[in-house]
Amino acid sequence: MTCDALELSLSDWQILFSKWNEQKFRAAQVCQWIYAKKIFNYHDMTNLSKDIRAKLTESVLMTLPVLVKQQTSKDGTKKFLWLLADGNKIESVLLNHGGHKTACISSQAGCPLGCVFCETGANGFTRNLTRGEILGQFLMMEKLNGADINNIVFMGMGEPLLNEANVFSAIRALNDKDMRNLGARHITISTSGIVPGIEALADFEIPLRLSLSLHATNDALRSKLMPVNNQYSLSKLVGALKRYRDRTGERITIEYALIDRVNDDVQYAYEMAALLDGLSPYINLIPFNPIPSRPDLKRSQETRIKEFCRALSELKIEFELRKERGSDIMAACGQLAASRNA
Predict the structure, then answer these.
(1) Which residues are tagged catalytic?
(2) pLDDT digit string (tens) for 258-308?
(3) 3-state secondary structure the chain
(4) Average pLDDT of span 247-264
(5) What is the mean pLDDT of the chain?
(6) Which of 120, 131, 257, 266 could join 169 via S-S bond, C-beta 3.0 to 4.6 A?
(7) CATH architecture group of domain 66-341
């Protein structure tokens, strides 16, 4: 009976080696080859006996996403189009910040939430990614990068907290000292506001960072832009954010895309201050990235962006106007849609 390597935890590997009457430390050796050295061919795992390598080849599949296309932006951002074993395609992004790099990972093939400013949702939803497919993206990106990538954001295709079990399982592997050994402070989950998922994240044994896609400061507007708000209103959402902050002590990042004449009026800066009072979040302002499915939506004008920023400054809200990255290859926030390349 075969299984898949990237679906196995360290304890799963240990059980497997015990069944083969092999010492348990072999499990950590295999995990080091896969997660630390990015060696995916068992025959190249030279500190294992030929017999063990033969058993692994026969019994444990190594299913990795296949790189279909790689694009590089003028700013150094790289976008990867992957083919999964069932024929579905997904995209992920490698952001170059100069001193460090960040992998932007997908958690679903498509997205079911239908946010009006996001191309991923406009192209529909197929399914959740498995733990192995999530890990496979990252490991292949590291192998292609030729060096470790020490920051991960779950901000690619899909809503990670609607695939909670597989995302959390993948994170456990990334964090495990005998596997990828990536520190918790280097892992961020971005959500559109799945309240039960935020509650689960607050109680998760690994203290991950949380980023919320807000994009509107009252229920009427947010429900128009993000249908998920009809299920999880802003009052429920803010309550969950406060519980997360109280339980973890972690500061929350708020993502806010500035769309011309939609959510960029100065009044919304004041509404944001009232809504998030007591949370002391860090605000990421994102000039809207145009998408093919909504040509009617435009990026805010520079004067309106400056006015919005000035209001936040006066309100003593800490914020950053995010520098645009990857938009020339459709790799910026809201632009991922593997179906374009199908």
Answers:
(1) 91, 333
(2) 999 999 999 999 999 999 999 999 999 999 999 999 999 999 999 999 999
(3) CCEEHHHCCHHHHHHHHHHCCCCCHHHHHHHHHHHHCCCCCHHHCCCCCHHHHHHHHHHEECCCCEEEEEEECCCCCEEEEEECCCCCEEEEEEEECCCCEEEECCCEEECCCCCCCCHHHHCCEEEECCHHHHHHHHHHHHHHHCCCCCCEEECCCCCHHHCHHHHHHHHHHHHCCCCCCCCHHHEEEEECCCHHHHHHHHHCCCCCEEEEECCCCCHHHHHHHCHHHHCCCHHHHHHHHHHHHHHHCCCCEEEEEEECCCCCCHHHHHHHHHHCCCCCCEEEEEECCCCCCCCCCCECCHHHHHHHHHHHHHCCCCEEECCCCCHHHCCCCCCCCHHHHC
(4) 97
(5) 96
(6) 131
(7) Alpha-Beta Barrel (3.20)
